[in-house]
Amino acid sequence: MDRFVFLTVDGLSRGAVYAAFALALVLIWRAARVVNFAQGAMAVAAAYVAFTVSTATGSYWLGFVVAIVAGLLLGALVDRVVMRHVDHASPLNPVIVALGLVLLIQAVLGMVYGNEFRPAEAPLRRSALTVGGFAVLSPYDLFVFATIGVVVSGLAWLFARTPVGLRMRAAAFAPEVSRLLGVNVGGMLTLGWALASGVGALAAMLVLPTELGLHPHAMDLVFVSAFTAAVVGGLDSPPGAVVGGLVVGLLLSYVSGYAGSDLTPLAVLVLLLAVLLVRPGGLFAPVVARRV
Amino acid sequence: MRRLAQRGLAIASTIALLAAAAGCSGDNGSGPGGASVPGVTDTEITVGTHMPLTGPASAGYSKIAPATKAYFDYVNANGGVHGRKITYKIMDDGYNPANTQQVVRQLVLQDKVFAVLNGLGTPTHTGVLDFLKSNRVPDLFVASGSRSWDQPDKYPGTFGFNPDYTIEGKILANYAKRDLAGQKVCFLGQDDDFGRDSLAGVEKVLGAAAVAVKQTYVTSNTNVAPQIGAFKAAGCQVVMLATVPGFTALSIGTAARLGFKPQWLVSNVGADHPTLAKQLGAAAPLLEGMVGTNYLPMQNDTANPWIQLFTKVNKEHNGDAPFDGNTVYGMSVGYLFVQVLLAAGKDLTREKVLGAVQKGGFQGPGLAPLRFSATDHSGYGGQRLSRVTGGVQSYFGPTYETDEADGSVNEYTAAPAAPPANGVPTVS
Amino acid sequence: MSATRAALPPRHQLAEAGRPVDRPRGSTLLRHLAVVLAAGLLLVAVSYAVEPFRNFQLATVAAYLCATAGLTVLTGLNGQLSLGHGALMATGAYTVALCQNAFADRGMTGGWLLVLSLGAAIVSTVAVGAVVGVAAARLRGPYLAGVTLAVAVVVPALAVTFDGVFNGEQGLSVPVEPPPLALGPYFPYERWQLWLTGAATLLALLLLANLIRSRYGRTFRAVRDDEVAARLAGIHVARTQVLAFVVSAATAGLGGALLAVLALSVSPGAFSLTLSLFLLMAVVIGGLGRLAGALWGAILLVALPDLTHSVTELFTLSPAVAQRLEGNLPLAIFGVTLIVVMIAAPGGVQGLLSRLGRRLRARRS
Lengths: 292, 428, 365
Known about the structure:
In chain A, 72% of the residues lie in helices and 1% in strands. By secondary structure, chain A is mostly helical.
């Protein structure tokens, strides 16, 4: 029982980060119909900026804020400078460009910072508080849950309740009509990229202290898990991303705890197949009549 | 439709021309040397290596080959070996065995290197053993503790450098048996021959039943909380780690977060204090009391004449790069290779180099003996324990030597050699 | 709805691809045979003209070409995106390794054993491809990408989990017999490797080229362009997609098997997710949906590491700077090239060449 509680809590706290990262993927997919393979590399770049600021000023929180701002800017930059000019006639083109960005960003980071691991500090204690004899949550886990809770509800509010959110949704789903109605479709797209990249940067800041440390490739594995989470949940559904993230986090934790860590990729594949063969558009796919 | 055929032909012939042009230029390059021994002229010896310089596995390791090269540059600046300068070709394989295939063939077939030196990695280097053998290329001082390099009958040209993982496991287990008697010992190893060989060594000394909990990890999963949680639940008091540096840091960090503080006994591979401290950042004090092993001078031991020499070389020929265990390792490899070249004599051939290595008797920076002989192609045969005290990693106790079989763990008492005055070995 | 399908090449390309269909089929086969024979003769000539390392590189190009050709048929012609072709190559590679080891253990010798092993590699990859393909036929766009990505990641896990069979991350060695004595005692091994892989690849390409021009090729394209229309025209969409996946898997398996034979070893590190992504990049940069594009892609895959090294050697830098740039600078250059090519010439290298060719012809007439 002790072990089960432990693995559950551990899985949820990683799952929350996967959820945030998956959410970033979903945001870009909804806005631009692009699976952003460069998400991980972009987030690492933002984390490196935070690292530079934190070591220069000695303040973790300043670095944290700078990371998110850097993420927002990088997202906007990638859209304006690169993605805007890609021919989207074939959906493969943006994917390949994103892979090119991964190579470029990781190489530049390697040149500037070297291929060494840098410490990624956690702002709060990571040792668990014990409740009734059980080691349950660490202050850091609570911080992760709270931050991601705020981000998810903030985004939900943005899209559901604000005029900007409405325009973003309109621009994504019916760009031509929106343009006729006076919506700045290009601007909304850039905003979508910026938001997604900002959320990605935040997720990186949260997950890196639990990983090996800061490294140009630090988010590669997280990206794979998060992409899986987004696909399990359904790429069109933000709640799906959150649920998918938690499910993947729990699965990885249980499988490595009870079966052995080498089996986790197999478990992920089984999960994907099980979900997608029943629901080819993910758990939270909108029910659309299939075009046949 | 002929058009398509023509196009196909056009493409094919373009390739042919390109390849032919490249081929010709290559031939011209290697032609005029005149010497019958590949990679050796009257003024130059060309050797090559494959190393991960990029990619996730490159952390730390990417500094080894430049350090070796820096030592060669130092020797070259002091007149070289028998009047020949050493050229060291460093090829990046990104720790991808497919790339290793390519770059090693490039070194051997195109660059015509005399020998491959210190190729890094078990999965990467395993794949080129047969190729190097069939081309009769000396394959010296492989940078890995796998036992695969010690097969004189099957691979007569291949020699190891690192003490193998079984020896390491035996020496660490010997410490646990003697100094931590009665404590519950547990083991975390990488899920490959590194972890397996190490565990085999541990069990040879302690007995299979004595290791209470055995866990493994894979490098593709950075969450070791389940494994560490199992140790804690079982009440382990001593945890032995056969882990790469990243996972040593991760394991120690995770244990602290779970409120679990065992005595850590760490394999040499993952026990370099500067690397771990850098990765743990503010959490570096967690490393206090960690016991590790090593067989080369400790990089922080500024009183050691070898460290003084290597620091000087690092300053003069390596752009004063950060000095750590990898630098010491790379330069030690360079020193040994120069010793071997000297022993092989002025009239250099591949056979003579292999003969010189097998003859053995090399005294260098290493604390433990090098075991090279006609029947033994493994590298260092022992290690010394180190402990982190007050944020400084230093040696304690004697150096131990043992074998990878059932031999006992013995003290090795020979005094360490001092470096020659000018830092370049002489013919003994 | 194009967004959820994997690939739609520009219209003019479709028109071009559609044209040959009107020709009688018998001549197509003969023509392809002629091209393959010419290419084969050329390859033999080249193998004598260049030094061993180039022979090995060309042999590696041939092995990769098998995989990229299959991938371009799947993604370019049938519109299914696969991020898991590295795993299919691994299936072929491990099958060859296990077969060759089994033969060697039983003391069986003979040149035909390798052919048998390669055949077994294709069969096992077809089986795996059929399973993945059946799942893939239900999925579209990013969901298919997600599943194939998971397949790519599973390879090292399987190798480690069943290390009794696959020997974990260290992998297996692949015993291959030396060139037949009939070729002479000093026949360069690399030339023999080129002949071997070249022959296998040309055979695979011949079959693929004929498939593309056949009725099946047309149904592949029809399904890619419009599933509804294809269905109305009486095409069984799911069956077509599974068939495309199986064909693609077979060539990927052969490619992986050839790579293993070339390397004399197989290990999971050689078939990582990175390989799958690079295969995809290679076919898109080469020119998606064309076998010639697959050839450019395969050349790129082999030339890249070589280029990586040459680029850094161009500069004489201080050791400190060199250490940072080494490896990283070429990757950065490659990344930028990838982005620029995709923006400036989405048709890839082959698209550029055809455009150039058309312009030249237009000027001449």
